[in-house]
Each structure stands twice: as structure tokens, then as C-alpha cells.
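A favour, since you know our C-alpha cells better than I do. Just paste the record in under my message, thanks.
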Amino acid sequence: MTVTIDAWRITGQSQIDSYVGRWAELAVVLVNVLAVDHAQGRTRPLPATAAERLAALEPALADWRARHPRGAGGGGPLDTDRLAEVATALRPAFTDGPYAGVAELNALLVRHGAVPNLHGEPPVLAFHAVEADVAGAMAADAGTALAMVIGVGQGERLASCQAAGCELVFFDVTRNASRRFCGLACQNRAKAAAYRARRGKSTT
């Protein structure tokens, strides 16, 4: 499973800019890597050690660091245990309905001191305090982005795969928020299952 954060846009949707969208995609990566153990019809073990989590998140971490001033998030090691807790707190926003997870998000924003500010030169917008460590900064960035998506009435775009045996989440960027699956593999599995079900009914 790829964990890169791709270029982002919603066709015809001006309420959410690309900066917010990118950190909403960061939330998707955190949840899918650290909090989902059923993907595309298979059970998979979650990364259990700091080294496994770092390896799984490295593309997302590299993207996050590239978009923040040098030194953002402090210089210490990444607290992957805390980041796993962040992923668990972010997940209800995707899985429990379009406006679910609000209490968890509010608590996360307070816990990680989310505060919009500019720092670096040239100034870069961030949703975390300058003194935040990497885990706290990523939590504030991702959590604030989801809160902003929900706050502009687009919470239905935070969704989870509807294919059987898959709990991967995604940020729906289609024009009418009609996406149902995490990707083509699950879409094809669901179509095949529906076809088999129809054939079974026709033969009885």
C-alpha cells in the first residue's frame, strides 16, 4: 500500500484549499498506516515497533518536513507511540458518519496545542506551535485540516471503503462526493461479489 501524499484538489470545490487538503491526506495516511488492520479483503498486522512505524510513514514524513521550515517539529526522535494514538483519535472522523468524531478532534486539537501561525523564512502557514515536537506538529496539522473540512460542511468527504473486508479511509475529492471505495482493487472486488450474488439468485 502506498503512503505518499499526492497532489490534491476537489474539482469545483473552492471552500477547501490545497493546503488544507494536503494535511487531510496526511490524516488519511496516519489512519491507514497506524490504525487500520483490515485492508482490501485481508487482515494485516499493524506496525508494532518504532522502527516499523517509521519505515511505513517515511514518505509521509519526508513530505511533511519538505513543507515546513528547517527545524520545525523540534530535533528529537519521532514519538511513534503517540502518533499511533493520534491516528486512533483521527479515525472516527472518517468512519462514524460525516459529522462524527468531532469530540475526538476537539480533544486532539487542545491536547496538541493546535494554533494557526506563520514561521520560518519565507513564512509558512502551520497549524502547530513552533515549539511542538514532530508527533504533536503532525497531529495538529492533520487534526486542524479535518476540522476545517467538517467545518465548511464537507464532512461527507471523509469516508471509509465500503468493500467487504476493507477499513481503509480516504478523502473524497470527486465533484459530488460519490466515491465509495479506497481504490480500484476494492471496487473490482465489490463488483465481482455483487455479480456472484446476482447469479446465485438467478439460479435458485
